[in-house]
Amino acid sequence: MHADTDILFRDSASKALLDPQLRANFRRAMDGLMAKRKAQFPDPQDLQELRELSTAIRSRSLLNLPTLLEQLETNLTRNGIQVHWAETCDEANQLILGLLQARGAKTLVKGKSMVSEEMHLNAFLEAHGIEALESDLGEYIIQLDDETPSHIIMPAIHKNKDQIARQFSQKIKDAKYTEDVDELTAMARKVLRQKFLDADAGISGVNFAVAETGTLCLVENEGNGRMSTHVPPLHIAVMGLEKVVANLEEVAPLYAILTRSATGQAVSTYFNLITGPRGEGELDGPQEVHLVILDNGRSRIYADPQLQATLRCIRCGACMNHCPVYTRVGGHAYEAVYPGPIGKILTPQMEGVGVRHDLLHGSSLCGACSEVCPVQIPIPDIIVRLRREATHTDATSSVMGKGSGRTNTEDWAWRIWAGVLKRPALYRLATWFATRFGRALPGSAPLLKHWTAHRTKPVPAKRSLSERMRAEGGPHV
Length: 477
What we know:
By secondary structure, the protein is of the alpha/beta class. The chain has helices spanning 9-17, 20-40, 44-63, 65-78, 89-102, 114-119, 121-127, 137-144, 161-171, 181-198, 224-230, 248-263, 298-302, 318-321, 326-329, 340-351, 357-360, 368-372, 379-391, 408-422, 424-437, 449-452, 465-471, and strands at 81-86, 107-110, 131-134, 201-204, 208-210, 215-220, 234-240, 244-245, 270-274, 288-294. Strand 5 and strand 6 (215-220) form a beta hairpin. The model is unreliable at 1-6 (pLDDT under 50).
């Protein structure tokens, strides 16, 4: 992920707002997703009960996380799945590279995985001479243009049919130009089908990992996940350490609310349960299965009772689909692996609130995200908390980069403001100057330019309220 203080959400968002095609693509897509989700939950009471159950499951999993992770490793190992632990993205990348190089793997196919995006795994492997091809159609589309996902569920949602048609005709060998969706899909399928057969290894994400049985659960719609995990001889799964649940019984309600919240489907096309490598006498499946469990700051988030709720996320994307900010600027404006409301609280915690505190202010705090979140993450409350962490230093806080977003200019501005408000004579003098000369202050003035870039310059009244009350003989201060 980015760690560049020059990357500011307000700048990239401003550019996105100037792209009418991008805004139209997102408006159309988000309207459709919101309507589909609403149709899946006709009874508000049933929805709330399912949300409360899902919240309880994820909260209980986090409460018992250390124990569940140990149980998961034990049962995965018993099933023949080799478990590897990585504290950082670099460690995870090196682990995967070592597994691939030890087996002479030069090509691999990938199912959709946001954790691998978090690791920038594709670029890392390609730098070491290993081809990593995305097999999810949306991921394949953006990989052709060397882009990052714009949405955690629908990575190519920022593109429309015409744009994809032009892209395929230019980037896929011998592809003709067509705007027929079925033909476009067939073009991608033709390329991917051979890649599945030729790949030395497959990589996938994990939606839920079941501690009791040592099972990896994978939700998908295209079958590419199953092809990536079962056809190549080596399967490597990657997941964040928070994805564990206690037992299979807990998967069912999470699965039910995940698919409905994400794409408005009652169920996904495929739900894979992976319990180990190919057994004796079995005709298909990988010869080896490995699981890489990544921390990357999750333990630090876990240590804070309030911020721990961030880890309840099941990556459904509903918060993005309903966010008035995300809907207008798209995912790339966030310059982060995880965009939208969940990204506003996850990215600053992973990279540091001082580095990415700009994301924390790219929110209206309207609460739409928390209203639709299937596991009831209080995103607005966490945003407010992290805004404070960015400018305050608390010895008891585990937040990365706490206090580093504070500036001397802002400190002095608030000190002057407080000093004026505490002294009646200074306050009256300040309001006198504001009412007499405030209108003459140009909109390009340093104190106003960020406001007037998108708004009308504020115009102070000709007389303060106190002056008017005094002139009319009323009470005044």
